[in-house]
Amino acid sequence: MNNKYVLLIILCLLAGLVFAQYVKPVVQSQGITPGELIRDSGTWGYLIIVTFIVGLALAFVRYRQLYVKEKIDASKFYLKLKGYIKNDQLDEATKISESFKNTTLGFIFWSGLMVFKDAKKSKASGKEMRESVQNAFDEAVLQTVHKLDGGLFWFDVLAQTCTYLGLLGTIWGLLMAFKALGTAAQSEANKKLTDGIKVAIGTTALGLIAAVPLTLIKGALLTRAQNVISDIDEFCVKMVNQLNNTIKE
Q1: CA angle, 41 as apex, 35 and 214 as ends, to 5°?
Q2: 145: Cβ contacts below 8 Å, ≥ 6 apart
Q3: Which partner from 54, 69, 79, 136 sits 20 to 30 angstroms from 157, CA to CA?
Q4: How far apart are the C-alpha atoms of 75 and 95, rounded to whole Å?
Q5: Which pLDDT belongs to residue 228?
Q6: Contact 175, 196 (CB under 8 A)
Q7: Would you report the helix, strand and coil content of the chain in percent, each value rounded to 5?
Q8: DSSP character for 3?
Q9: What is the mean pLDDT of the chain?
Q10: How many helices and strands, by DSSP H and E, does the chain display?
Q11: Does the pLDDT value for residue 9 go beyond 70?
Q12: Residue of higher predicted confidence among 36 and 203
């Protein structure tokens, strides 16, 4: 089995433990353990937990993408390349940008510099070189930037799913309770009524407990993605201008 899938399975198991620890202080103040809350919620509670764990696994993947893979000081990176470009050391600038090609900004700079080098070697006119450089940057941006904030809507979907599952469990529990009142014998009615209310209240609480952190996670990841995109917009314009300044008519 691929190592990344093994890691994902382990993460899901750990996420379940984290979820239990998150729920514990909330419910223990009322004398309820996380296990009791989940057990009383029945099938709906387990569906909520599965949905929450899927959200945590997705959060781990996107965290690695936005906080680990995209970890780069855009300003220092640009200034370093700018120095080489001003000294007409395009090979060095290209090699440095290539070493950061795993980041979005590094890939865009590398793509633009490669096209600029090729245009310069072919002795294209100044107008042709400017157009080639601009097109190269635009193409690289379109190819990569959408991946930064794309798919974050799934956190909203998962959070809403947890909430809706909690609501559905609430309705189901109330139906159980009303049915018990109408059909069960007096000796069993109280127990079935209690069980129905437990399902109704438990699933509501569990759905909200799962939805809140997923919503917060989405907000944090979206903020990070927007910051990375802002850096890309700013320094791509600066890099294009810097390359255009070195072009002689």
Answers
A1: 80
A2: 104, 229, 232
A3: 69
A4: 18
A5: 95
A6: yes
A7: 90, 0, 10
A8: H
A9: 82
A10: 9, 0
A11: no
A12: 203
243's tokens? 């390359």
Alpha-helical runs (H) found in 145-185: 146-149, 153-183
Q: Which residue has the higher pLDDT, 218 or 192?
A: 218
Q: Which amino acid is at 152?
A: L
Distance from C-alpha of 122 to C-alpha of 152, rounded to nearest angstrom: 43
pLDDT of residue 245: 86
Q: Over the stretch 94-118, which tens digit does the pLDDT of each residue have?
A: 999 999 999 999 999 999 999 988 8
Residue pair 158/55 in contact (Cβ under 8 Å)? The answer is yes
Which residues have a Cβ under 8 Å from the Cβ of 201 and sit 6 or more positions away? 170, 173
Please report, for residues 81, 112, 226, the alpha-carbon distance to residue 109 in angstroms, rounded to integers and kept in the order given: 9, 5, 19
User: Under 8 Å CB-to-CB from 59, ≥6 apart: which residues?
Assistant: 155, 214, 217, 221
Q: For residues 127 and 132, give the distance between their C-alpha atoms in angstroms, rounded to a whole number.
A: 9
Using alpha carbons, list the distances in angstroms from residue 26 to 18, 22, 31, 198.
13, 7, 10, 16
